[in-house]
Structures are given as structure tokens and as C-alpha cells.
Amino acid sequence: MPTQTRRWHLAARPEGEPTRDDFDLRETTVEDPGPGEVLVKTLYLSVDPYMRGRMRDAESYAEPWDVGDPMRAGVVAEVVESNYDGLEAGDVVNGELYWSEYAVVPGHTLRQVDADLAPVSTALGVLGMPGATAYFGLTDVGEPTPGDTVVVSGAAGAVGSVVGQIARIGGCEVVGIAGSDEKTAWLTEDLGFDHAINYQTENVGKRLREAVDGVDVYFDNVGGPITDAVFRQLNVRARVVVCGQISQYNATEVPMGPRKLAGLITTRARVEGVLVRDYPDWTEAFERIGGWIAADELHYRESVVEGFENAPDAFLGLFEGENIGKQVVKVD
Ligand code: NDP
Prior knowledge:
Mean pLDDT: 96
Keywords: Oxidoreductase
Distance between the termini: 16 Å
CATH architecture of the largest domain: Alpha-Beta Complex
Domain Enoyl reductase (ER): 19-329
Oligomer: single chain
Number of domains: 2
Protein name: NADP-dependent oxidoreductase
Organism: Salinirubellus salinus
Low-confidence stretches: none
CATH superfamily of the largest domain: Medium-chain alcohol dehydrogenases, catalytic domain
Bound molecules: NADPH dihydro-nicotinamide-adenine-dinucleotide phosphate
Number of helices: 9
Region (Disordered): 1-22
């Protein structure tokens, strides 16, 4: 049994873009699991944009970490030793743990991952929190109906790539906005999006106007100028799902308020945030998405960074658009 583990801690609060210096790798003792507890070994850990909010000392939907705190993350892990009735050594589990190679956690906080269903890393992506966000955000808040035009920003990421495919399966015309030609090609050629716009090289507003006749549902993962451009083309009674605003996460000044609200008077569009933790049971999402994957109707991709020591780089890469699909770190 291991007696020590490596664990990443928050070394400093980033000013603007985070850097590697904001992370600190420490050795810490692994205690023996107590009653009801489980010792797990991390196989994959998730890096997610929301972690940037937790590094900041400001109100956010996720509670801030203190400097010196261990970094937390969704992980897929193998049970090494269990004092919890529902789990035994060798089981693969998913839970909210740490950026850590080993951890001791209460067994009831873990859910078992079915390794026969799909590669276990998907419990962090398409069959995990991002998949559930895409499913509930689109179906419950976006409420698309067949024939609607659905636009997704951050379209080649973990959440966005699933949103666009669920909309396509639901009979919508789908436009994805992403940051490279490799990403836009993936969206149209592999995922079946009708149109894809590279916001780095193309004029989003112009391309959108050429491609579709207004927007019925806008699923927003990024905010900023991309969202300004889409807002100008909302249809009457459009729905805007505010899921993420990654373009603002490293801002050092309070971003300018929404600039396109006057258009909502004309369109009577509805703008509503979504928070995946408002949905306590994700079974429906995983059953539907799992079914579409099995039927080859929904595809997914993962970007895998190898090595526990490279976890900060995987996180920093999210802000550079280095990932296609879900970004995970393969620890072992
Ligand atoms: P992604 O897999 O989409 O990774 C982040 C992507 O954001 C990058 O690949 C990059 O793609 C894009 N990006 C980075 N910087 C910018 C920028 N300045 N402007 C435009 N795009 C940018 O992450 P997730 O799918 O995990 O998350 C997507 C969004 O959803 C995030 O904003 C996240 O915070 C939010 N979220 C919200 C949840 C909720 O409950 N509300 C739950 C889960 C996620 P590109 O190359 O296209 O720029």
C-alpha cells in the first residue's frame, strides 16, 4: 500500500492568464482508509474551465479554493482497498477527488464506472459531467424543436460537441463555432454539423448570416465578441442557454456588461443560465447519450495528456484551445 502520494496544490491566485507557477506539486501522506472509506488510485483526471473560477477569490458558482489548498477534480480511479460495502479492490469509480495519484475518500461519494460500456475515461466527458451539461442544458433550457436552427459556441469542446450532435439528432439545423480548421472539419465531416465557423479566421456574423436564416437556440460556452455576433441574429422567441463564458475567465477587469440587450425587445428572446448541478440525477442523460453512441449516431473525442506531472499544462491548454473534445490527463 502506498504511504505517500503526489498532489497538486494552488500555489498562487493567477492574475489574468494562469501559468505553471500557480501550481505546486507536493508530497503528502496517504492515511489508511477508515470505516466506510476507500483508497483509490487515479487513472484519469479531468481538467475543466470552471476550475479557473475556483482559483479566483471572487464570488462564482463554484466555491473558491484558498492558496495552498489541494486542487480538486473529477477523476476516474481504481479501488485499491475498500472498507465500504458497495465497492471492492479492482472496481473502477468516478468521483470528485483531487489532482492526486492516490486518495482516501468516503465510499458513498463514488459511483461505479461500467468498463464494458465505454472506455472508462468517458466518465469524465461524454458520459460524465460535460455530457450531462450538454444534455440538460440543451433539452431543458434550450428546448429545441425539429427544424430549429441551433448555434453552439465552443463547439469542438467537451460540452459543445455533444450539444451540437443532440440538436442534429433532434432534427435541427446546427452551426458550430470553434477556433481552428481542424476543429471545424471535425464538426462537419465527423459529427454531422450543417455548418462550422472558424472564429479565428472568419467573420462570425457574416458567415452566420450567409449560412442560416436567424438563430432559434444559441448554446453559449464562450461569451465575448462571438456571443455579440450571434445575439444580432436571434429570431423572435429565441432561447439563449448561457452555459459558460470562457473568453472572460482570465479577464483582469470586470467585463463590459451585455451590449446587445436592446435586441431582446424586438425578439422577445429568453436568456437563461444553466448549472448542471441543478440536475441531481444524470441517469437519463447517460442512457440517452449511451444509446446514441451505441447506435453510432453520436461521436466523441478525447485529448489525452500523458503523465500526472503534466496536469497543469493540460489545464492551461484549455485557454489556448489545444483540446478537441474532452481534455483528460492519463495518470496511470
Ligand atoms: P472545452 O472542452 O470546450 O474547452 C475549452 C474550449 O474553449 C477550448 O478548447 C477553446 O476552443 C475554447 N476557448 C478558450 N478560450 C476561448 C476564447 N477566448 N474565446 C472562445 N473560445 C475559447 O470545455 P468544456 O466543454 O468543459 O466547457 C465549455 C464551457 O462550458 C466552459 O465555459 C465551461 O466553464 C462551461 N461549463 C458550464 C457548466 C455549467 O454547469 N454551467 C458545466 C460544464 C462546463 P477553441 O479552439 O474553439 O477556442
